[in-house]
Each structure stands twice: as structure tokens, then as C-alpha cells.
């Protein structure tokens, strides 16, 4: 056992952060999905991390993907990252690996609207349980209507007419991976993004609490604010330990634990950050609300709280 | 202890209910929420109707043009109007609940005559100019300067934030610093600012809900006549506390009634959608039912206490002297109201979080849904009008008598 | 509406407190059920508050009973107070009103051990729902074994052999009140005791926080401690409003709300008080643990959290 | 990152498992929990067996008689002994986890030779004399006085509290004040007190669980030779921090493994009793499964970090300089361990609260049930070894770099 980031992993994290901060200025990209940035991610090999080098990949694994997704989550990078990563790797969807093709996903039956449907080139359809194969369709084959999304950086479509996968009858089965596996990896990568967002909200809250003065001193010198921030960090660090572990063990329960705790760290972190920001946190201009809204969305995608808790209970 | 209506209360309730049944169908359709002039017109028309029917300023003293009714009458009013689906106080909020009562308590006869009747008749809209970008929870840190020009005017420069209805207000109850040398809580003065004065700029402020409920108000050498000062120069902090106490007291009572209705709607939705089968969610709704039942009783208790003693209930272990426990005999609610605000802010957020569970991702992620808008705006409740952290300080220090300091 | 204590009610509360503090020194009576005190309560008319004066009672009602029970809860007065009060009033059990007879209760099916069985003179047996009649038995008719009670001041017996009411087949029906009504009043009076205990733990925590010094100042000057105490008071005041209201309205939902919130105020209040006391709170000598243990017991008796939440949900 | 065993680790685990399979059946029956001499004998016998088998002081340095194994080896030891149902460290706790490592790090060669081998061989029991009635969370407020008598002895007077195993201990790691004039954190000295010295009185302390796990230790002019001082005079605070860091670091690792087992037992009970059908309770258990899974990973992470850098992981936004983040290169865990302690204390209380729900009133109100005893003792976790409030201060100030003060 040596549960620390290796030098290569530290370098990957640093490189990813530099790439993303260089292209976004370190702020959540307010313009939504940026295809040029998407291709840059592809060029940097981030979608193909887990592919063998012979197939044009980097030959790394889920632990590295988790680090990359954590960085993406930190900046609230808009786009169906998890679905595109799965398409590039397990499913070998052409163009997904180099970022020329954006792939979004519909999970039949979970009732979550589809993100970035209009901007996507392919739609991954998940239906059934272990043993079932994923299917692939063109986005326009899905009968869906736009929703005014709570997350301003993530357009959403609600499936209309028939429910779930039945709404895209023409989708073609993709050999290579069953839906249970895809769901697990999708949940883990989503948890990693939540972790990144949660970590970022601690940074934001702490930075604000150090400089914002009330009653003649930085608000961070008041225990009430200190303890809010300490609670945020406690949730981040706890979630981090199990997100990283799930990437190593690829275990189903551990992934559910990772998703559950990362969702909570992200949602509660963003809420506490708004509280520390006070009135400023209630404005559109501050980024904090974007973290909360994305966290709400990601908490519903790829296994929500109820699903995680029930599957964890069943696994005891 | 008596929770039932007295004969007079029953009569009042009966008459109000009858009047509402006639008045509401005559109302025009509700305006577009983004159309501020239309909202003002709608709210003022409703206030005028209340005035004409004898329901304006129920809890205001008679010598201020109000009905002088005990506060319990106001609660019946809130219950019945909510039950009937009547409009909210809306643009009349600051005038009827903050500025008006302050002027009634602290203003001269001339000031009362000038400002109070138009508030009651729905003719003039007030907004609040207290908070500043660097003076939020720490209101006494406000820096907007007012300098007497020697000719009977104050010259005011600074900026205010979180001002509701500023776009359509006639007047602003403004706190300014008149003596920058004095200790923080001194040297503050309360002014009535005409919003059409030269140098006043209003800029809408977009909230995280995407709406423009609030505005920033910029003041650039705005001249305000000294006759617009309520209370003595440099005495504005005391005057302000009167107003703030009103805000922390009964201001949310109507919302508690509304939350009880929302909870019933939510349960009905859950029952018809099948989400009711989720025991975790169902029991959470059961708990919210307890919560809002208790909050309504807490309002009734506080109002009963305030009506008779001017003090909020403060049991537990009140400290010696227990400052800030309300102003006896004035009907001004005190620090006990912080208990209510703490609890209610949290319960409201819980209600909207539960709603997201009931509606599922399809509804909870839809920004066009009323529930989503309500969920977003509920986030302000633990911040606005004193954060929950500040409220806990107030409860600990003023009600429980724990030592100041850290 | 005038939701304040009347002068008579204030006097009753004061008188009850003086009586109880005079006989206990203001501390939870460590000796357990005190029959002399019980008779003194009877002599003071506290069990017969709600009986008409013609029947030897005081002609008052539930609101007054709630004030008396709150005072009893404040001092953790040991004994089956609620059952004895019901026996004295609704059921007219001889000797209950004047405190010469101690009556305890068994609710068939809720699984809660019976308190003070050995010291009791009568056993009230509740079985079935609305419309069913309560029954009365001699305690020794119940086949039960002593439990090492978590509350050192409240001996408990667990029904052995047959479950619930079937274990006392010889119990005789008592005309006068159906079990649903008794359960509601029992829950309310138990909530009132919890409220008293919760109020007392705020007093204890605040008194300790004012004098205990750490880091050169009273711990009550630290926000973390202040906010714990503020939260305790918040729960007490919220519970109080609905306990008093339920006494006036005699409404079933409101009683469930009262029990739910008073239980929570008592349990969490005692726990927070232990936290404020620190190591001292972990000792047997400090009274705080007695509040927690009694609160755990009372939270199970006469409607527990699950029952309250479910009935409240059903009533929305 | 690697969670699997290395070849060496796998071999160690395999050998340990085999040894446990042979050693455990040979153990005598567990003693009566109230019989302290029997408990001491049992714990020491087990320690001796570990010593003979080469498992004593796994994580101690080789030059202190330990195995010099990386901390990960200690985690494997905890996992395997827990899985096999082996005894806990018991009376050996302070010696093996506090006093021993302190002496190993700070003692002279003679002190190491005198005290360390008997700890490893299970011959001598240590207890801890840090806390005092008026110095709990604020340990540096301790007042027990030690005055040099000029003949090479200290004369010690004062009292200590919360001392485990004092009744059967040979030695006490004692903090005393040697310079009352110095600032609070200076003027403290670390002494090894022989418990049989004249003037030492031990009085058992009854906890809310009704047991006598702790004692008060009264010291009345007790003479302690200066040779028993570890570290320099007045330097005991620094020496103490080393020990405290150990306590906050890996001390709870074994308990996390035990909690995972308790959770499995609880789920099995709920499944067979039908309580499993209660979705609220079931999902609560599911959440606890996530919690203890994560806590175990957090232990592994902290131990991996500590083994290589001597620092606990501290991400988030570490403050400039970030004091207290562990002592690089020493294997001493730092403030990051506070995150673990905060979370674990709460999770343990949650586990026992859930157990009360699973067992129902019949079990939860029975003081004789192990679960009830565990629930009561879990209440100490958010208080002992630094309250949760103190831990949050540490996290906020030392890890996040928020300003000291309020």
C-alpha cells in the first residue's frame, strides 16, 4: 500500500490545471461548452488516458482520469465529460478520443434531463442492468424538449413522448462494455468533478474569509466562520479519500460511497460558501452559485443519493 | 392561554373573509414579475382597496392613521388573506412594515402627516437604504456620508445595496453617517430620501436566482433637506433598531402561513406521483409539518407577548439585565424574535430542499419551475436581515446572557 | 387569541416549582420514586387538576397539567407521572388522584419496557386503536423481568412470554376513555416533561459556560459554545410553542408535533449540554447524563419519532 | 497510488494471519471488565505473545527495539487482528502509543534502555497524567507543580484527571509546571512518575456509562528523580505535542476496522428482526457504510503520507507557512489528523445512535446491552483528546490558515 499520488500523477494534475487555467483564466467558462477547448483536451490525451498506447491512448487508468476530472470540476468545465470519456475509452466511439466528437448520455429511467444535447455529436443510451449493452444514437433522434436549466452553463433537454430509451428506438448497440460498468465509471468520474468543485468552494470561502472585514476584523477570525470552513474541508478530505480509493479498487460499493460523499461535499460546500460570502454570495456575479447549481445537477446524474444509499445498504 | 378567537376576533375574521370574497375577483390579473411599474401599480391598487375597506395599517397606532388593533388581529389578517389567495404586501413592504412604523414612533407631527397617509393609502412606495457593500452583517460599519451644507440641507454621498423596489420607490429610508469621528454606533442619522433627487442612481442587481429583485443605489452629492431627518442627528442607530426589530418580528408571519400551504401542495404532488411511497421523503414531510405547525404557534406566542408587554418571550436563562429583549410597552419585538428567524430560515430551506426531492431531477433542475425559483431565493434567508451566525450571537448574548467577546 | 400564560397559570407554575424544589433541593432525586413526594403531589391536587371540583379536583385542564409536567421534567422527577395522571382523571382509578396509588402503563405493541412496575399499585394496559377501552390490572399479574435500565432513576421491566396485553389476560376494562385519547394525552404530558428537561439543560449549559474558564476566559465567550447554547434555546422555544398549543387545541397532529419536537429538544439538549460541560459532563456525578438517559426513555414512550413523523405525514 | 499489498506486505499479512490462527485459541478467557488486575494481566500476556512472535512495536524505530516497519504494516496488523478477533492493546495503550514513542524520540540512551523494552515485552504499564480538572481542552493551563529540591529530585503536588489504567499502572507520563512565571506553553516539564511513589493516590472516576474506566490521580509532595525527566526542563510542551500528535493520528485506526464489523453485525440484526424494512433506517445504515469506508481510506491516506513525509495530507487552501502540519521526516502526524478525528468521532456516535434504532426500545434502554454501553461511551469521542470545537479551530487555523483570534 502506498496511497499517495505518484510524481507522475502530481505532474498530470499540475499539467491539467495549467492547461485548464490557461484557457479559462481560472474562472468557470461562462460561455458554456467550448469546442476548441474540448479539442485541446483531446489533443492533450485526456479523453484517451485509459486507452493503451497502441490504440493512440496514454496507457493510464481511472486514478489518472479521476485527477483530471477533479481539475475539470474545480473550474466547472461545462460539457458531458464523463460520457465523452466513456465513449473514447470503453466504447471506441470515433472522434471522442481526440475531442472532435462530443458525446452526451441518456440513462433510461433515472429521469435526469440530458445535458448539452444540442451541442453533442453522439448520444450514449444506457438501459437495463448488468449484461445489457450500451447503445449509440445521433442526438437528433431523441425526441426531447429544452428545459430552462437551473445551471446556466449546462443546457438540458427533457425527453418527451416515450420515456427513456424507448424515445430513441434507432440507437445501435455498441459492443465493448456493459451498462453497469459504464454507470460505475460514469459515477466515479462525476464524483471526481464534484470533489473538484467542493475543493474549490473551500478555497473560495477561505480566501473571502481572510480579506472580508466585519466588526473590524477579517470574518475568518470568527469561530462561526472558521468552523463552517473546517466542516467544508472535512467533507472534501473524506470524500477525496474514497474517490481516489474507488478509482483504484474499481469496486461498486466504494464507487457508490464516493459518489454519495462527493455529492454531499459539493452541494454543502457550495451552500456554506454562499453563507460565508453573505450577500455577495447571493449575486449572479460571484461564481459560487454556479458551483451550487452544477453540484445539484451532478448529484442527480450517474446515481443519486437514494440509489447510492440503497446500494450501499444492500452491500453491507 | 387562549388560541381561539375572541368574539371580536371572530367578527373581524368573518367580516374580512366576506370582504375578500367580494374584493378578490375584482382584482386585475397579476403582473409580469419582471415589470416593476406594473407590479407597483398592482400592489398599490390592492393597498388602496385595503385602505378603503378599513384594513390598512391594522397594527399601526390610531394616531398614525392605523386601526390600533392588537397584533393578533394582524395575524388573522395574514391567515385569511393567505387562505383566500390575496396579493402580498409587495411594494408596500418597507413603507408599511419598516419606514412607516419608524416614522410613527419617532417622527414629528409634520413628518407623520406628510408620510404616513400616502403609505396607508397606497400612494407612495418606500425602499430601504441600510446595507452597504462593506456593511452587511455589521450594519454599523456604514460609510455613506451626509454633510450639512449650512443651508439646511444634507449633502449625501455613498452607495447602498440590497434595496428592494428601488426602481419604483418614491422614498428611501436612508441611514447615513453624520459624524465620522464618533464611535461606530453613534454619528448615524436616519433620513427620508426622495428617490427623484438629482444624484440618485439605481442599478438593478442580479441575484443567483437570475432575477432583479434588488438594486444598488448610488448617491452622488444628493441634497436632502434637514426636515427629512427623523429623530435627532447622530441618533439614527437607535431609530434603526426600532425598524430592525419590526423586520425580525412579525415580518415573516405571513410567509409561515404560505409555507403551510406549500407543504400541503407538496404532499399532494407526492401522493399523486408515487413519491409518497419513499418513507424517507414522507417522514421528512411529516417533520416539516411539525416544524411549520410549531413556527406558527411561535409567531402567535411572540405576537401575544409583544402585544401585551412589548417583549418577546425569553425563557431559558436570561442574563442579568438581558438587554435587547424588546422595548417594554412599545410593541417592539426584541431579541426573542431571533429564535424565530433562525428556525424559520432553516425550515424554509428544508421545505424547498424537500420539494426538490418530491419533484425529482426533472423538476428540481428546471429553472422555470416555481419551486426551483423558491429554492434559490430561500438561500438568502439565512443571510439577509442578519445572518444565522449573527442571530445566534444575539440569542446567546442578549437572551441567554452569555458574555460578549469571542 | 391571547397565547400567554395567565396570572393563575404563572402562579401554578411558580407554586409547583417551589413545591418540587423544596422537596428535592432542586436536584434530580437520586433515590428514584419517592412515595411521600408522590402523596404530596396528590395533596397539592396536581394529579386531579383536570377533575371537576365536585369530584375532588381542581377544575383546570390540560394547559395547566402541561405546566406542572414541565416542572416535573425539569427536575427529572422519577415515576409514571403521565399514567398516574390519566388514571386519576379520565379513568377515576381510586387513590390515583390523591397520590396514594401509583399507576404505571403498558402499551401493547410499542415494545417499550414498563417503568416502575415493582413500585406501582396499578398497571394500565393500552391495546388497540380508537374505540378500544383501556384495561387495568395489578402489576404482579404482568409476566415481566427486570431490565438493567439505562436510566438509573427509572427501573424498567420487559414483558416476557406473551407479548403486550396478552401478557395480562386478567386485566379488567375501565369505562371512561378510549385508548386513542389516553395515548394522545399521555404523549402530550410526556412531551411536557421533555420540554422541562430541555429547558433545564439550557440553564445548566449556560450557567457552566459563564463560569468555566479555558484559555483565560469563560468558555461562553467563544462563539462555538454560544452557538451550541443558542441552538438549544431555539429548540426549546420552538417545542414550547407547540406543546402549549397542543394542550389548548387537543389536536392529534399538534400533539404529535409537540412530542416530536420536545423529544428532539430534550435529547439534543442533553447531548449539547454534555458537550458544553466537556469532561465533567462525562462523569456520573454531574446531572447531565440523567437528562440524556431520561430523554432517551421518554422519547420511546407514548409515541416515538417514527410514529410521530408518520402520523404527521398522514395528516398533511 | 496503490492500495493493494506489496509482496512484502502480502507476506507479512499471510504470516500474521497464520500466527493468529495458532495463537488466539491458546488465549485464556477474557477477564471481567471490572477486574483491573485481571485485565492488566490479560493485556500484558497478549503483548508478550506479540513480542515473542516479533509483532511488538511494529512502527517503532529499530533502535528503540521496534520493527521499524512502515506505518502501513501497522494498519495491516490492525486489520488482521481485528478480523481474527484478537485482544486490543488495552493496558498497553499509553506505553505503546504515547509514552513509548515519546521516549523513543526524546529520551536519552539510558532512558530508552530503561523504559522501552518493558513496554514492548508487556512487563510495565503506563498511564497518562496530562489533563487536570481546570485544564481540559486548554491543556497548557495545567497547574500541577514540580519544584526541584536541590538534591536532584522534583517535588510534585497537584492532581490529574481522566487517567486510564491508573489503578494498575507502573508509570505515569506526567506533565508538570516547573516555571510558573513563564508564558503558559513554556515552563512545562515531562516526567516519568513511578506510580508506587509515596504521595500518589488513585481514585477511580465513575463515568456516565457507570463504569470506572478512568481515575483521578492526586499527587501530594511526590518525589520524582530528575533522571526521570524526558527532554529539557521547561521543554515539556514540545515533547507533549509529539505525543498528542500520535494520539490524534493512528490511535483510532483499529477502531475504524472494528466499527466496520459492528456495522455488519447491525445490518445482520436488522435483516433478521425485520427492521431492515424501515427505509429510513436502512438508508441510514447505507450512509454509515459509506462513512466508514471513507474513514478507512482516510486512515490509509494519512498513514501513507505520514510514512513518507511526516505530514498529514492538507489540501484545500493551506495558509502561508501552515504551522502544525506535522513534523517532516519524523513520522509524526500533524493537524490533518484533526480532520479524521472530527469525522470519526461523529461517525461513531451516529453508528451507536443507529444501533439504538435497530434494536428498538427494548435494546436501546437496556444498560446491560453492549450497544448501550458503547452508545454511552461514544459520547466522550467529541470531547476527549481535544473537543470537536478545538479540532475545528485547528483545522481552520493550521490547515486552512484562517487568522487566529475569535
TrEMBL record, chains A, C:
Keywords: FAD, Flavoprotein, Oxidoreductase
Origin: domain of life: Bacteria
GO molecular function: acyl-CoA dehydrogenase activity; flavin adenine dinucleotide binding
Limits of the Acyl-CoA dehydrogenase/oxidase C-terminal domain: 187-295
InterPro entries referenced in this protein's UniProt entry, alphabetically: AcylCo_DH-like_C, AcylCo_DH/oxidase_C, AcylCoA_DH/ox_N, AcylCoA_DH/ox_N_sf, AcylCoA_DH/oxidase_NM_dom_sf
Cofactor: FAD
Leader peptide range in chain numbering: none
Domain called Acyl-CoA dehydrogenase/oxidase N-terminal: residue spans: 7-78
Family to which this protein belongs: Belongs to the acyl-CoA dehydrogenase family.
Name of protein: Acyl-CoA/acyl-ACP dehydrogenase
Automatic annotation (TrEMBL), chains B, D:
Domain annotation Acyl-CoA oxidase/dehydrogenase middle: ranges: 127-221
Entry protein name: Acyl-CoA dehydrogenase
Taxonomic lineage from the root: Bacteria, Bacillati, Actinomycetota, Actinomycetes, Kitasatosporales
Family that this chain belongs to: Belongs to the acyl-CoA dehydrogenase family.
GO molecular function: flavin adenine dinucleotide binding; oxidoreductase activity, acting on the CH-CH group of donors
Cellular component GO terms, alphabetical: plasma membrane
Domain called Acyl-CoA dehydrogenase/oxidase C-terminal: residue spans: 234-400
InterPro entries documented for this protein: Acyl-CoA_Oxase/DH_mid-dom, Acyl-CoA_Oxase/DH_mid-dom_sf, AcylCo_DH-like_C, AcylCo_DH/oxidase_C, AcylCoA_DH/ox_N, AcylCoA_DH/ox_N_sf, AcylCoA_DH/oxidase_NM_dom_sf, Mycobact_Acyl-CoA_DH
Amino acid at each position: 500500500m502506498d496511497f499517495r499520488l505518484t510524481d507522475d500523477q502530481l505532474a498530470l494534475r499540475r499539467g491539467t490545471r495549467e492547461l485548464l487555467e490557461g484557457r479559462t483564466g481560472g474562472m468557470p467558462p461562462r460561455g458554456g461548452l467550448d469546442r476548441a477547448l474540448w479539442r485541446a483536451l483531446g489533443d492533450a490525451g485526456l479523453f484517451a488516458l485509459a486507452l493503451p498506447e497502441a490504440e493512440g491512448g496514454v496507457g493510464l487508468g481511472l486514478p489518472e482520469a479521476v485527477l483530471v476530472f477533479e481539475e475539470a470540476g474545480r473550474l466547472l468545465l461545462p460539457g458531458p465529460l464523463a460520457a465523452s470519456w466513456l465513449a473514447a475509452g470503453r466504447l471506441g466511439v470515433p472522434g471522442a478520443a481526440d475531442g472532435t466528437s462530443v458525446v452526451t448520455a441518456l440513462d433510461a429511467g433515472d429521469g435526469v434531463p440530458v445535458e448539452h444535447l444540442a451541442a453533442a455529436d453522439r448520444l450514449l443510451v444506457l438501459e437495463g442492468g448488468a449484461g445489457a449493452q450500451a447503445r449509440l444514437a445521433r442526438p437528433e433522434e431523441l425526441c426531447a424538449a429544452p428545459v430552462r436549466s437551473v445551471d446556466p452553463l449546462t443546457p438540458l433537454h427533457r425527453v418527451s413522448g416515450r420515456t427513456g430509451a424507448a424515445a430513441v428506438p434507432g440507437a445501435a448497440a455498441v459492443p465493448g462494455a456493459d451498462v453497469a460498468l459504464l454507470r460505475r465509471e460514469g459515477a466515479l468520474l462525476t464524483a471526481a468533478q464534484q470533489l473538484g468543485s467542493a475543493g474549490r468552494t473551500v478555497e473560495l470561502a477561505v480566501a473571502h474569509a481572510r480579506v472580508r472585514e466585519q466588526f473590524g476584523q477579517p470574518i475568518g477570525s470568527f469561530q462561526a466562520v472558521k468552523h463552517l470552513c473546517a466542516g467544508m474541508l472535512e467533507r472534501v478530505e473524506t470524500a477525496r479519500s474514497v474517490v481516489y480509493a474507488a478509482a483504484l479498487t474499481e469496486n461498486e460499493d466504494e464507487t457508490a460511497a464516493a459518489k454519495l460523499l462527493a455529492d454531499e461535499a459539493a452541494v454543502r460546500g457550495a451552500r456554506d460558501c454562499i453563507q460565508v460570502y453573505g450577500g455577495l454570495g447571493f449575486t449572479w456575479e460571484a461564481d459560487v452559485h454556479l458551483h451550487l447549481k452544477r453540484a445539484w445537477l451532478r448529484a442527480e446524474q450517474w446515481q443519486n443519493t437514494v440509489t447510492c444509499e440503497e446500494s450501499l445498504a444492500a452491500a453491507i | 392561554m387562549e388560541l381561539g378567537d375572541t368574539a371580536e376576533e371572530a367578527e373581524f375574521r368573518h367580516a374580512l373573509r366576506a370582504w375578500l370574497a367580494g374584493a378578490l375577483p375584482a382584482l386585475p390579473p397579476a403582473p409580469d414579475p419582471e415589470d416593476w411599474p406594473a407590479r407597483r401599480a398592482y400592489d398599490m391598487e390592492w393597498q388602496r382597496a385595503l385602505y378603503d375597506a378599513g384594513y390598512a395599517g391594522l397594527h399601526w397606532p390610531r394616531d398614525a392613521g392605523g386601526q390600533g388593533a392588537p397584533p393578533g388581529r394582524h395575524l388573522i389578517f395574514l391567515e385569511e388573506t393567505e387562505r383566500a389567495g390575496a396579493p402580498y404586501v409587495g411594494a408596500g413592504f418597507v413603507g408599511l412594515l419598516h419606514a412607516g412604523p419608524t416614522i410613527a414612533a419617532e417622527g414629528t407631527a409634520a413628518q407623520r402627516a406628510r408620510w404616513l397617509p400616502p403609505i396607508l393609502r397606497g400612494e407612495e412606495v418606500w425602499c430601504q437604504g441600510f446595507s452597504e457593500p462593506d456593511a452587511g452583517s455589521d450594519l454599523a460599519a456604514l460609510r455613506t456620508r451626509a454633510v450639512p451644507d449650512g443651508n439646511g440641507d444634507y449633502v449625501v454621498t455613498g452607495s447602498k445595496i440590497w434595496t428592494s423596489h428601488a426602481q419604483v420607490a418614491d422614498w428611501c429610508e436612508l441611514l447615513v453617517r453624520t459624524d465620522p469621528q464618533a464611535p461606530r454606533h453613534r454619528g448615524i442619522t436616519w433620513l427620508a430620501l426622495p428617490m427623484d433627487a438629482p444624484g440618485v442612481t439605481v442599478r438593478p442587481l442580479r441575484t443567483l436566482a437570475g432575477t432583479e429583485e434588488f438594486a444598488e443605489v448610488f448617491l452622488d452629492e444628493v441634497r436632502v433637506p434637514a426636515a427629512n431627518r427623523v429623530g435627532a442627528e447622530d441618533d439614527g442607530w437607535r431609530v434603526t433598531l426600532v425598524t430592525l426589530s419590526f423586520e425580525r418580528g412579525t415580518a415573516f408571519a405571513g410567509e409561515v402561513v404560505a409555507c403551510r400551504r406549500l407543504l400541503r401542495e407538496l404532499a399532494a404532488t407526492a401522493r399523486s406521483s408515487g413519491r409518497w411511497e419513499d418513507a424517507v421523503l414522507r417522514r421528512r414531510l411529516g417533520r416539516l409539518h411539525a416544524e411549520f405547525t410549531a413556527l406558527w404557534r411561535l409567531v402567535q406566542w411572540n405576537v401575544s407577548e409583544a402585544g401585551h408587554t412589548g417583549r418577546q418571550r425569553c425563557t431559558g436563562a436570561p442574563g442579568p439585565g438581558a438587554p435587547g429583549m424588546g422595548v417594554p410597552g412599545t410593541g417592539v419585538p426584541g431579541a426573542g424574535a431571533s429564535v424565530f428567524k433562525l428556525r424559520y430560515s432553516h425550515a424554509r430551506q428544508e421545505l424547498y430542499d424537500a420539494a426538490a426531492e418530491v419533484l425529482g431531477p426533472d423538476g428540481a433542475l428546471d429553472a422555470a419551475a416555481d419551486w426551483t425559483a423558491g429554492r434559490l431565493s430561500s438561500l438568502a434567508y439565512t443571510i439577509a436581515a442578519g445572518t444565522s451566525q449573527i442571530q445566534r450571537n444575539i440569542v446567546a448574548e442578549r437572551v441567554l446572557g452569555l458574555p460578549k467577546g469571542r
